[in-house]
């Protein structure tokens, strides 16, 4: 979506120029649209990198190395999946010890459970400060 939005913004002046001045040949349209598409891809990659969407794992690793992240290591033998209610996402009760149960719920667990990565008996939760 970002790429489409930025591409439309970059193409808007050319479309306005064509509407006001007149027809532009196909060759000129091709020669201008290819660099604009490359520029729009570059802008999207830059914005995603700046917002941490691309290098997220690197950011988490740096936070762990610097001691700025909390890591909760969980080993369990029992996980119970809760029936999904409304649009809140999947929920899981995870038995941590005899007296402790961890409840996790969210739509982000939907994708994890279908990839067979979650729930499992040994995993970590990383909380960034």
Note down, in words, how this protein is organized.
This protein has 129 residues and is of the alpha+beta class. 47% of the residues lie in helices and 23% in strands. The strands form two sheets. Strands 2-3-4 form a three-stranded antiparallel sheet. A two-stranded antiparallel ribbon has the order 1-5. Helix 1 (2-20) packs antiparallel against helix 2 (26-50). The longest helix has 25 residues, at 26-50. The protein is elongated. The model has no long low-confidence stretch (mean pLDDT 80).
What would you say about this model in short?
The chain has 129 residues and is of the alpha+beta class.
The helix count comes to 4
The helix-strand sequence is HHHEEEEHE
The strand order across the widest sheet is 2-3-4
Helix-strand makeup class: alpha+beta
Binned, the helix content reads: 40-55%
Number of strands: 5
Q: What is the CA–CA distance across the termini? A: 30 Å
Largest sheet: 3 strands, antiparallel
Strand content: 15-25%
Low-confidence spans: none
Shape type: elongated
**Rg:** 24 Å
Mean pLDDT: 80
The oligomeric status of these chains comes to: single chain
Keywords, please?
single chain; 129 residues; alpha+beta; two-stranded antiparallel ribbon; 5 strands; 47% helix; 23% strand
Write the layout of secondary structure elements.
Blueprint: H1 2-20, H2 26-50, H3 56-65, E1 69-75, E2 79-82, E3 90-95, E4 101-106, H4 108-114, E5 122-128
Helix pairs in contact: 1-2
